[in-house]
Design brief:
Helix content is 76%, strand content 0%. The chain has 10 helices and no strands.
Length: 196
């Protein structure tokens, strides 16, 4: 279906807001980046921002979803393979997205996610893992008794912990290798009760 000129202009404005927020987040950091900064860089009035996003945090959540979109689109396919492989691939690919953004951006991400107002990012990441684990249950790769939410919480906590450790010591922590090691050392034991 062809977009109208108005719809195309609106999509372009939204895209500019997201792209400029991404750049400014890297340059200024989460705390110092304001809505005015984003709208000024995008060439739109401050009020225009609210036509697309309720808050700065809502925009940053959209930015996170955009960065992870390729991975989240793969969830149905991942849910058809062996559970250890599916979770390994998800966790490694998630960490690749983080690493590609760089440790400075990861530090900004940590500042964002630790703010109690920003539970949406945690919820989004948790829901993605829950979707994958539930898919593994639905595809009879994991038992129906699998504690989907608890398992997702455990795994996302490990991912977040690795990101945090990398930000503390970027020269000594290899986040991708840390995820691979976690998967090699822990996933079999975590899943043994539930794998079919």
């Amino acid at each position: 279906m062809k977009m109208t000129n108005r719809a195309a202009a609106a999509a372009e404005t939204r895209k500019k807001l997201i792209e400029n927020a991404d750049r400014l987040l890297f340059e200024k950091g989460y705390q110092q980046m304001s809505i005015v900064d984003i709208t000024k860089a995008s060439g739109v009035a401050k009020g225009t921002f609210y036509n697309y996003f309720e808050t700065k945090e809502a925009l940053l959540l959209e930015l996170s979803k955009l960065h992870l979109s390729k991975l989240t689109r793969q969830l149905p396919q991942l849910a058809t393979v062996a559970p250890q492989q599916a979770l390994h691939d998800y966790m490694v690919d998630y960490m690749r997205v983080v690493v590609e953004s760089g440790d400075n951006m990861a530090r900004q991400w940590i500042r964002f996610v630790v703010d109690p107002k920003n539970q949406q990012k945690w919820q989004f990441d948790l829901a993605s893992l829950e979707e994958l684990i539930q898919g593994l249950v639905d595809n009879h790769r994991l038992a129906a008794s699998t504690p989907v939410q608890r398992l997702a919480e455990l795994l996302i906590t490990d991912i977040y912990g690795i990101v945090f450790s990398w930000c503390i010591s970027p020269t000594t922590i290899d986040p991708i290798q840390s995820v691979v090691s976690f998967c090699e050392l822990q996933l079999a034991a975590i899943l043994q009760t539930y794998e079919l």
